[in-house]
Write a structure and sequence with these properties.
heterodimer, A: alpha/beta, globular
Chain lengths: 335, 484
């Protein structure tokens, strides 16, 4: 029996060692929390998990009461700019997610409520993709602290046990170069920085653009980013699932939480470069649930979406555009 | 719980530790543990049918004693027929009631006479086909005095409900398994290691090969209207390999688990796709079922029709394969699958002078494959794959259309054979499994693999890593034979 158990150990030890290495190295920063996420990184993390991890590290004496929610377009909305429109005493934090969904927004508000956070101000940055269900990938899966599901770890283990990903990661780690089979992982030496006190994510591309915008935009043109239809292909021609029962339930729950906390909230529908307006029925339901004075639609053809220079790519826009949007939103409110 | 699930990886070590470390020298308690574990395993699937399994076991146990203890041959015979009829009735009720009622309604509708079929919302109890056949073989073997009945319900319960083979076989015989259950077991290192290796190999076939082929098979069989002949042919080939990997993978895991408990199960697959003829195929494929049908259906029928010469034998084969088709599923497509195999036997029975003594269960050697045998192997594989189109399709009509589309597309679009079929990349899994099988088929290589060399250990460690990689990245499917 001892020899048999020894044999089992021989077979299982490499597996345990591998999982131990994965846990200790934590290349996707999903098993533990870190004070810093973006410095010297080249791999994409689960943004939702990063935001929550940074938020939970904010000292208790710092009373965060204002939240920027939404998808990655919300990165253009800087907390310091937003605070200009908020009453004194407001403290803001970013709680966004890649490919955010209504389910995600609902879960975050429930999480905040459960934590006992005051939810005084909220701005929700969304577009038609918010009506879809979560994409199945480690970058988009909801963290366990929100939905109490282990799917977060399963999705991360999926990628971390993929021979292709491990080989690609190791190759990039040593050579900082992408081979053709690695492109799907999007490894890139990131210039992104994060403000750990506010959760703001800075792309740090504005300096580059200021220095050499012609070449950068030409490069984007060559990669077809400037074509509106490519942006549509990336996001989807229409919302994926539309007004299903779950989405409507999410909207109602979100409204309920915001009302219960007497939150001052705004819902901004992104100005996307493809100029596809949010479908009417979805816009209508947002207006019905949240009221016309809280919903601001910047989708479709307008002065914001006409000029590509407002965007880093066809989807993510620059803080300068976000500031204009906020001015418009809060000016309307003031009126 | 599935063999490739987290729950099973917790369940198995717990049972193993209790079996060898807590109840080490107590055969009775070891068997009680196996029985309780088996009921737990089965109940995990669906606790509602656990009572049916227990009742079926209790009835079989009681009936076996009654058959044996009957004072006269007539009473003995009556008990046998009664107990067999009850078992078959229960199986038919759950598995075939709706099928026969719907078929009858369709037949009357064909003659413009509409009836309202009284179908029931029946759920097929998991493994009922398998444990019913376990019970039947026990009762019939007692009647023919091949075995004496056990007087311990626990032992009989383990025989019928033993968890590794409960839901998808192999279909064990009381003459083989019961003596193992009744004898004390001692842990043997070689047996244990072989068990672990079989489990790893079985998981590899299931998780890496079968589950990877499943999406391609599902897509092609769901959209057979849209694909070229070559894609449809590829789909059929993928299913042949998926079916083999899935089912033989399950059996390997079942046999491997059993070795951990000191029990040897019947070999169920012996490189079936290297068969050079259909009769040889049935000596190598699902051996436990085909030998069961040979012993309890074909042999009695062949005896009954012996005066009719070759046509009598062929009639016996035909009926046996119809029953085999029915056993696999309550659908005309399964019946046609069985009929096709019976048809494939025609040249070997009617046109040949060689006598077919056994449909299955004969000892089969694995000699080296000569190059001149390759055409026979390919023809046999083609026949099997063709029949499996009916097996996989959701009904008879889709199967016929699938075949029709292959033929029509070949005639209308011969140029499609110059293009790669859809999901062509799935062929890598076909080549992988057949490659491994070819190596294992060769005796020298098989012996090398079984030795305790570093290379062998590294090979199995490599398999484990591959399984883990695919376990997380490929959607897990239930074993195909669970539906039977």
């Amino acid at each position: 029996m001892k020899a048999f158990l020894r044999k089992i150990s021989i077979y299982l030890s490499p597996v345990f060692i591998y999982f131990l290495v994965i846990y200790i190295a934590d290349p996707l920063k999903c098993f533990r929390t870190y004070p810093e996420y973006y410095k010297s990184s080249f791999v994409s993390y689960n943004r939702e998990n990063v935001c929550l991890a940074l938020f939970e590290q904010v000292p208790n004496n710092v009373q965060i009461n204002s939240f920027i929610l939404g998808n990655s377009c919300s990165h253009a909305y800087k907390t310091n700019e937003w605070l200009r429109h908020l009453p004194p005493g407001s403290r803001a934090f970013h709680l966004d997610a890649y490919r955010e969904t209504l389910d995600g927004i609902e879960k975050k508000l429930e999480y905040l409520q459960h934590r006992g956070n005051a939810i005084k101000n909220v701005i929700i940055i969304i577009d038609r993709s918010v009506f879809s269900s979560k994409f199945k990938s480690y970058m988009y899966v909801m963290p366990k602290r929100l939905n109490h599901s282990n799917q977060f770890y399963v999705e991360h283990l999926k990628i971390l046990t993929s021979l292709k990903f491990v080989a690609s990661y190791c190759y990039y780690y040593f050579f900082h170069n992408n081979l053709s089979f690695m492109k799907e992982y999007g490894f890139i030496d990131s210039h992104q920085t994060s403000n750990n006190q506010t959760g703001d994510l800075n792309y740090n591309q504005d300096e580059e653009l200021a220095a050499d915008s012609v070449n950068i935009y030409n490069k984007l043109k060559q990669q077809d980013w400037i074509k509106r239809e490519n942006v549509t292909n990336l996001i989807g021609n229409n919302s994926f699932e539309g007004l299903n029962a779950r989405n409507i339930q999410c909207l109602q729950t979100i409204k309920k939480i915001l009302d219960a906390n007497k939150t001052n909230y705004k819902i901004v529908i992104n100005p996307l470069y493809d100029q596809k307006a949010l479908p009417n029925n979805e816009l209508q339901i947002l207006l019905n649930v949240f009221g016309a004075k809280n919903v601001f639609n910047f989708s479709g053809a307008n002065i914001y979406t006409n000029d590509f220079k407002n965007f880093y790519d066809g989807v993510h826009y620059r803080p300068s555009l976000a500031n204009k949007v906020m001015d418009s939103v809060y000016k309307s409110n003031a009126l | 719980m599935l063999f490739n699930s987290l729950e099973f990886f917790v369940f198995l070590p717990v049972v193993f530790v209790l079996y060898w470390f807590v109840f080490q020298n107590n055969l009775r308690l070891q068997n009680v543990l196996l029985l309780v574990s088996s009921y737990f395993f089965y109940g995990w699937w669906d606790w509602r049918f656990l009572s049916l399994l227990i009742l079926s076991s209790a009835f079989g146990f009681y009936a076996g004693i009654k058959i044996n203890d009957a004072p006269t041959h007539l009473q003995r015979r009556r008990w046998m027929w009664f107990s067999v009829s009850v078992n078959i009735a229960v199986l038919c009720f759950f598995k075939y009631y709706n099928f026969f009622v719907d078929s009858w309604a369709q037949t009357t509708h064909f003659f413009h006479y509409n009836i309202n079929p009284w179908t029931l919302k029946l759920i097929l109890p998991l493994g009922i086909s398998f444990y019913t056949f376990h019970g039947l073989s026990y009762l019939i073997d007692i009647y023919y005095e091949r075995i004496t009945p056990t007087r311990k319900f626990v032992d009989y319960g383990v025989f019928v409900s033993y968890f590794p083979l409960l839901v998808a076989g192999p279909i064990e015989r009381a003459t083989h398994l019961l003596p193992h259950i009744e004898k004390p077991r001692k842990f043997k290192y070689e047996q244990g290691v072989e068990g672990i290796r079989l489990m790893i190999w079985g998981l590899f076939k299931k998780v890496v090969i079968a589950d990877s082929l499943a999406p391609s098979v599902n897509d092609i069989f769901a959209h057979y209207h849209d694909y070229s002949a070559l894609t449809l042919i590829a789909g059929a080939i993928f299913f042949s390999i998926q079916m083999y990997a899935d089912f033989s993978g399950y059996t390997d895991i079942a046999r491997g688990v059993s070795k951990l408990f000191g029990l040897e199960l019947l070999l169920n697959f012996n490189f079936p796709y290297f068969s050079k003829s259909i009769p040889e195929f049935w000596q190598r494929w699902h051996i436990s079922l085909s030998s069961w049908l040979n012993d309890y259906v074909y042999t009695p029928l062949a005896l009954q029709y012996r005066n009719a010469g070759k046509w009598g034998i062929y009639k016996a084969i035909f009926i046996t394969f119809i029953i085999s088709g029915f056993w696999h599923g309550a659908g005309w497509n399964f019946v046609v699958w069985g009929m096709l195999h019976a048809l494939f036997y025609f040249p070997y029975v009617i046109l040949s002078n060689k006598k077919i003594k056994r449909l299955s269960g004969a000892k089969v050697e694995n000699p080296k494959i000569h190059f001149k045998e390759v055409p026979s192997i390919l023809i046999t594989f083609s026949c099997i794959t063709f029949a499996l189109i009916f097996f996989r399709s959701v009904g008879l009509v889709p199967a016929v259309i699938y075949v029709k589309n292959i033929l029509v597309n070949i005639i209308r679009h011969p140029g499609q054979f110059m293009m790669l079929p859809k999901h062509y990349e799935a062929f890598i899994f076909v080549l992988l499994l057949m490659g491994f099988d070819l190596v294992a088929y060769t005796k020298e290589w098989k012996e090398k693999l079984q030795k305790h060399t570093l290379l062998t250990d590294l090979f199995y460690i490599g398999l484990i890593f591959t399984i883990i990689s695919f376990l997380f990245s490929v959607d897990s499917n239930s074993f195909i034979y669970f539906q039977f």
